[in-house]
Design brief:
The complex is a heterodimer of chains A (about 300) and B (about 400).
Chain A: H1 4-14, H2 27-42, E1 48-49, H3 63-72, E2 78-83, H4 90-102, E3 106-107, E4 116-120, E5 133-137, H5 151-159, H6 164-177, E6 188-190, E7 194-196, H7 206-209, E8 215-220, E9 225-229, E10 235-237, E11 264-268, E12 275-279, H8 282-294
Parallel strand pairs in A: 2-3, 2-4, 4-5, 5-8
Antiparallel strand pairs in A: 1-9, 6-7, 6-10, 8-9, 11-12
Helix pairs in contact in A: 2-3
Chain B: H1 8-24, H2 34-40, H3 42-52, H4 57-66, H5 71-82, E1 100-105, H6 160-169, H7 177-183, H8 213-222, H9 225-236, E2 244-258, E3 267-283, E4 292-301, H10 305-318, H11 334-340, H12 343-351, H13 358-391
Antiparallel strand pairs in B: 1-2, 2-3, 3-4
The chains are: A alpha/beta (about 300), B alpha+beta (about 400).
């Protein structure tokens, strides 16, 4: 990662896509993005504006994540893409194909084998390790956006460390519903300073971000922002002493692999509304199944 | 049973195949050439060049063809290609007074030096479907093209020679209508800032607020025509801004000059066809400098009058804060307009909703069920309490 010389050599060696640089973006653009990433790592949770480019996929399809991945990718990286936890959803397939076409990098579906994991809406169940980079696709990077529509205003609130409106919102949830009525994109406090949107992860995944050994990079292409959580950084989901943060739990196990600790998708299997509960993380599910079969 | 999310790769390949087939249409009908699109659907090409921020007729025509006529998709194709091009500098400001005018009208004066030139406009056509276009016809013989002078309105006591004399007096330059108001000191003047800094470039730098007028104008020039049209319209209907007059619309070819540092003198690197619109708006002079007129500015690649006019109205509306006017409509809100004007951003984000969201939906489903359980529990508890009270 972050090895321009390797990427130059690879551009020639791998062939990539004719007429395009290694990993699609030109080296000057990659440098702009890497500088934004370095700043983001230096100020955890702070949203760094960057000169986002139009990518050959639409905004909303993960262009922020794609640009971050392109900027850090080297020829020896192993790339994994998940969408909703699955490697096989159409857009995950499309992004994986894109990088295998423009960078010629090795791709994988196994969390443990990947050096870069680009994701939308999930963090893999298998714990991440040092040296891995998770690249999140972010639609709305601003955690305060639903409370304050003006960007000029929210930037000021962050600068002043003024998060009163967020706490009031969470309090009003409790007053109105008896609990905090946010199930995904649940706001977190990074390194004790910046309130940050974890991207639309189910809050089930929030605890995985705390003290994570892997580097976590967040790219918002349309909103032109990059932010980061360096390895081993404190990430705290906002809550109150008497209403502590808790994650979703199911009283069922995955009906394929039997996991009771994973995030479950609910699939309707017939007209009468029969539900099937299975792991959202397909690699985790398949690995557990393979391990079971081999016994 | 667990097949819903499998097979993505094959499905994508098949979708691409079907798309190519749809684009080609009925195989018995000859394929549309890029030259035909560029030549005969030229206004589509102009719009794609404008919003795609890339002046290249052939590539824009290719994009229109490839996008099956979906112009926003074509803009996207052009933008994505543009993003891969190096930027080696900034041209000198286009001098639109030196434009080789093909159309030029003013709504503020009956006649203007240089004359009013109608040019190729839909304005006075009767919108009746022309059945003769259903048939393929012979190409017109060479030399049958309508001369530009034919569409020139004969102003009061004017003739072509007089117009030519005036043009000569202006050294071949067609003077701006608003310059006559400037001479009279009736126009709000916009000073060139110190050292005339290079304008920002939104395709390289993210938007920040306040954006400044140069960046604002770049944003509007790339903006979706429909969005600007609606905003301009809203400002006319009372959601902000003052009543504008069209001081001048002109369209035609303009040379572009570039100053290479190593040469030290400008060279002409090509020419672009532009549509420019300048509106005149009354301004009460709440800044203490007296009543005068202000300008709204619109500029667009190609023949793109609806866009240029809408842009001029919105530009003027966005100057409300600078001119100390009351903010009363969305067209005057810089963040609202500039953040939502780009159709590639908008189309992407709106349409991304069709991507799978089942993980988040699952989270919401669990939450709503939990909230309902809590609510039902509370209701049941209330009900018990009442019955107990009655029993007591």
């Amino acid at each position: 990662m972050l090895k321009p010389e390797a990427s130059q050599a690879a551009a020639e060696a791998a062939g990539g896509l004719k007429g395009y640089n290694f990993a699609y973006l030109d080296e000057r653009t990659k440098r702009i993005i890497r500088r934004a990433i370095l700043k983001a790592v230096a100020v955890p949770g702070y949203q760094v504006p960057f000169g986002s480019r139009e990518m050959p996929m639409p905004y909303g399809w993960g262009t922020g994540g794609i640009q971050v991945s392109a900027a850090i990718m080297g020829a020896d990286d192993v790339f994994k893409v998940i969408d909703q936890g699955s490697d096989d959803t159409t857009n995950a397939v499309s992004i994986r194909q894109f990088f295998s076409k423009v960078a010629g990098v090795k791709t994988t579906t196994h969390t443990g084998e990947a050096s870069i994991i680009q994701t939308r809406h999930r963090i893999p169940e298998q714990p991440l390790r040092e040296g891995q980079v998770v690249v999140y696709q972010v639609p709305i990077p601003e955690p305060l956006r639903w409370l304050e529509p003006s960007e000029a205003e929210t930037r000021t609130l962050h600068a002043l460390d003024e998060y009163g409106i967020m706490h009031v919102k969470l309090y009003e949830d409790i007053a109105g519903h008896g609990e905090i009525a946010t199930s995904y994109d649940y706001p977190v406090l990074v390194n004790g300073r910046y309130v940050m949107s974890p991207s639309p992860l189910p809050k089930f995944d929030n605890p995985k971000m705390d003290q994570c050994p892997a580097l976590q990079l967040f790219g918002a292409g349309r909103e032109k922002r990059i932010y980061a959580i360096p390895p081993y950084t404190s990430v705290k989901s906002l809550d109150f002493e008497d209403y502590p943060f808790h994650v979703q739990r199911w009283d069922k196990a995955c009906e394929i692999c039997g996991a009771t600790d994973s995030y479950l998708d609910e699939i309707i299997t017939d007209d009468s509304g029969t539900r099937l509960y299975v792991c959202s993380d397909t690699d985790y599910c398949a690995a557990r199944l393979a391990a079971k079969d081999s016994i | 049973m667990y097949v819903a999310v499998k097979g993505g790769e094959k499905a994508i390949a098949n979708a691409h195949g079907l798309l190519a087939e749809k684009r080609r249409g009925e195989p018995a009908v000859p394929e549309l050439s890029v030259e035909q699109v560029a030549g005969q659907l030229s206004l589509a090409v102009d719009r794609v060049m404008s919003e795609g921020s890339l002046y290249d007729r052939d590539l824009a025509a290719l994009a229109v063809k490839q996008a099956r006529g979906d112009l926003v998709e074509a803009v996207f194709l052009l933008r994505a290609y543009r993003a891969t091009l190096p930027r080696f500098g900034c041209s000198l400001p286009a001098d639109t007074e030196s434009m080789l005018v093909e159309r030029r009208i003013s709504a503020t004066y009956k006649d203007v030096p240089g004359g009013q030139v109608l040019g190729p406009t839909f304005d006075y056509t009767h919108r009746l479907l022309d059945g003769t276009l259903l048939e393929r016809r012979e190409e017109p013989a060479a030399g049958q093209t309508v001369g530009q002078t034919v569409c020139q309105t004969a102003g009061a006591g004017h003739n072509e020679n007089e117009d030519q004399e005036i043009l000569n007096a202006f050294h071949g330059r067609c003077p701006k209508v608003l310059s006559f108001l400037e001479q009279e000191g009736l126009m709000h003047t916009e000073a060139v800032p110190d050292h005339d800094p290079e304008p920002g470039d939104l395709s390289r730098q993210p938007l920040a607020f306040p954006a400044g007028r140069a960046v604002r104008l770049q944003n509007l020039a790339r903006a979706d025509e429909g969005f600007l049209l609606a905003l301009a319209y809203s400002s006319q209907r009372g959601f902000g801004s003052t009543h504008p007059f069209v001081g001048e619309i002109r369209m035609g070819e303009v040379d572009l000059d570039f100053l290479p540092e190593e040469l030290g003198f400008p060279i002409t690197i090509g020419s672009v066809f532009l549509t420019e619109c300048e509106t005149v708006n009354k301004f009460s002079g709440s800044d203490g400098q007296g009543a005068r007129f202000t300008r709204g500015y619109g500029l667009s690649f190609g023949e793109n009058e609806r866009k240029a006019m809408s842009m001029a109205l919105v530009d003027r509306a966005l100057r409300a804060a600078e001119l100390g006017e009351e903010l009363r409509g969305p067209a005057q809100n810089e963040e609202f307009v500039l953040y939502h004007s780009d159709n590639i951003e908008a189309s992407g984000f709106v349409q991304h909703l069709k991507l799978p969201h089942y993980v988040d939906f699952q989270a919401e489903l669990e939450l709503v069920r939990a909230l309902r359980r809590g609510c039902d529990g509370a209701r049941a508890a209330d009900g018990n309490g009442e019955s107990e009270a009655r029993n007591a």
